[in-house]
UniProtKB/TrEMBL annotation:
Secretion signal span: 1-36
Every Leucine-rich repeat-containing N-terminal plant-type domain range: 48-84
Lipid bilayer topology: Single-pass type I membrane protein
Pfam family, one: LRR_8
Domain of life: Eukaryota
Originating organism: Punica granatum (Pomegranate)
Name of this chain's protein: Receptor-like protein EIX2 isoform X1
């Protein structure tokens, strides 16, 4: 998911990112098999492999001195290089740019960018790398090879289990990657949006070569063009161990909606955001039948259906109780909010904004015994046709951090119990038909940093009591109501608005 698809106003998103900013580095298993013998031998670098690494280094331009440790005989002690203790063979080459900064919301990676500092290798990738025939892990992500094409010879590194070329290459993706029969992780994500503006993203002309990668668990092609691969779904559908499938913004062509996929019980993560893959008014079967998926991003996927609208695909929530993240924004969905949401006991983010859904929130969330009330943290229903009042039910959602309900037809008063939602950081109720005054209790919400109540029918007086303990507030919009603001000029506010 990218910012481009996000409706949260910029300021609030940025602040949210700051709050949840996490520099956690992903730690991967080394793929090196433990061996008892390793305790007794300390094999050092093999000369041929050292020469290959040095040749590879000579092809690079290393202005940042990232490879300053690449001197001396023992290439196994060089930065980013790991060898087998037993044989001295190079098993792992991790040259990921050290400056990648990820933005998380909870556990969900929202965005990444390259920070400042000594960040990238440039130059070209020398074919001497093919000498490292025992290599099982190669990560070159976020370096700058001037958007060259992926070198075909990488397909000869037949022991590779992990290949991360994210945000490195443009041009054509070579079918030679299909020779990597041990591959489990293939990351070709071009997240870095500007690549697309600068030189056009990478292009995948067909995916038939995936048939050579039967063990693939993780496939990420997000941000590359798959437009010409008409049979993309047929090729991917064969991958029966697939757990992660990233195909955001791939310009996917319309696929056969009746096809069955072999990964319907293994897939845990699916991102198809920003592709229109439907035809007629049916949602492809395979999307309805994924039973292990915890992260499902289908925003903007059904929006171009010929007849316009689909109704909420209830099969998705009935067939899959594992869902933790569900994004179905901008899909021209009509009809009632689904009634079965409260069956989802792991859901923390529900994003249904930008559809035409009707009905009351209470009906969808309102089961007082539902486990959803303990898990839900992010609720986006903006820009629908939701009506009714904000009932007592929402009171029980103690872990909600974000409520986005702007642009609906919600009536009645703002509930006085809001401070009981003690985790709430962002509340957007703008553009509805809320009536009555703003309850003074709102002034106790010390975690709230974003509050929008504008464009409603609110009346009454706002005093310093309404703002007393809003110590985290950075954004306040109560405009376009019938409110009078009477703040005692002697009161010093406890917040810093931007
Ligand atoms: C291997 O290297 C480790 C750590 O560098 C050292 O403690 C150990 O004594 C070495 N073993 C042999 C057999 O050289
Ligand atoms: C980059 O590395 C050089 C030494 O290799 C160091 O002097 C310099 O301060 C570093 N710059 C940054 C921004 O980290
Ligand atoms: C590839 O590297 C990027 C960072 O450069 C990281 O975010 C991503 O998770 C990696 N992919 C895999 C499959 O580990
Ligand atoms: C990448 O490298 C090219 C050529 O070395 C350079 O012109 C370009 O500015 C670099 N881009 C970034 C983002 O560092
Ligand atoms: C690798 O794949 C390409 C294209 O699929 C093929 O032409 C080539 O012969 C293969 N190489 C090896 C070593 O198997
Ligand atoms: C995938 O499923 C099809 C039909 O359901 C089956 O013929 C094929 O053998 C399966 N492939 C794998 C790799 O499991
Ligand atoms: C769902 O998957 C099962 C097998 O896992 C299959 O028998 C059934 O036909 C599928 N249903 C749909 C609607 O695709
Ligand atoms: C809700 O879920 C139950 C079982 O989980 C199912 O029997 C029922 O048909 C579902 N209702 C709707 C409206 O989908
Ligand atoms: C608010 O109520 C008025 C009068 O009932 C109605 O005309 C208007 O459409 C409503 N606005 C919204 C956003 O529901
Ligand atoms: C603000 O918080 C303080 C300390 O938590 C409390 O004593 C006070 O009553 C609160 N004021 C309002 C208006 O809620």
């Amino acid at each position: 998911m990218r910012w481009a698809h996000n409706t949260i106003p910029m300021a609030s998103s940025r602040t949210a990112s700051m709050i949840f900013l996490s520099f956690a580095l992903l730690v991967f298993s080394t793929f090196e098999r433990a061996s008892c013998a390793a305790a007794f031998t300390n094999a050092t670098c093999i000369e041929r492999e050292r020469e290959a690494l040095l040749e590879f280094k000579r092809g690079l331009v290393d202005k940042s001195n990232l490879l300053s440790s690449w001197v001396g005989d023992d290439c196994c002690s060089w930065k980013g290089v790991r060898c087998s203790k037993l044989t001295g063979r190079v098993l792992k080459l991790d040259l990921r740019s050290p400056c990648v900064v990820p933005f998380y919301f909870g556990d969900v990676l929202l965005d990444q960018f390259l920070g400042h500092g000594n960040c990238t290798l440039t130059g070209h990738i020398h074919p001497s790398l093919a000498e490292l025939q025992h290599l099982n892990y190669l990560d070159l992500s976020w370096n700058n090879f001037s958007y060259a094409e992926i070198p075909e010879f990488l397909g000869s590194l037949s022991n590779l289990v992990y290949l991360n070329l994210s945000n490195v290459f443009a041009g054509k993706v070579p079918c030679h990657l299909g020779n990597l029969s041990n591959l489990q992780y293939l990351d070709l994500n071009n997240f870095r949006d500007f690549i697309q503006y600068v030189s056009g993203y990478a292009t995948v002309n067909n995916l038939e070569w995936l048939s050579g990668l039967p063990s693939l668990k993780h496939l990420d092609l997000s941000g590359n063009s798959v437009r010409n691969a008409q049979q993309w779904l047929q090729s991917i559908s064969m991958l029966s161990s697939l757990q992660f499938l990233g195909l955001a913004d791939c310009s996917l062509p319309i696929s056969d909606s009746t096809l069955q996929v072999n990964f319907s019980t293994s897939l845990e993560f699916l991102d198809l955001c920003g592709n229109n893959i439907g035809i007629g008014s049916t949602i492809p079967n395979w999307l309805l039948n994924l039973s292990s998926t915890t992260h499902l991003d289908l925003s903007g996927v059904f929006s171009n259906f010929d007849g316009g609208a689909v109704s909420f695909p209830t099969e998705i929530i009935n067939n899959n109780k594992q869902l933790a993240f569900l994004d179905l924004r901008y899909n021209s969905m009509r009809g009632e909010l689904p009634k079965n949401l409260s069956n989802l006991c792991h859901l923390f983010a529900l994003k249904l904004g930008g559809n035409d859904l009707t009905g009351g929130i209470s009906a969808a969330l309102g089961n007082p015994f539902s486990c959803l009330q303990n898990t839900l943290r992010y609720l986006d229903l903006q820009g629908n046709k939701i009506s009714g009042r904000l009932g007592d039910e929402i009171r029980h959602f103690k872990n909600l951090e974000y409520i986005g309900l702007s642009g609906n037809s919600i009536e009645g008063p703002i509930p006085v119990y809001l401070p009981q939602l003690s985790s709430l950081k962002e509340l957007d109720l703008g553009y509805n038909n809320l009536t009555g005054g703003i309850p003074e209790s709102i002034g106790q919400m010390s975690n709230l940093f974003y509050l929008v109540l504008s464009n409603n029918l609110l009346k009454g007086v706002v005093t310093e009591l309404h703002l007393a303990n809003l110590t985290s507030l950075t954004w306040l919009d109560i405009s376009s109501n019938e409110l009078a603001v009477k703040i005692n000029p002697k009161v010093v506010p406890h917040f810093n608005l931007i």
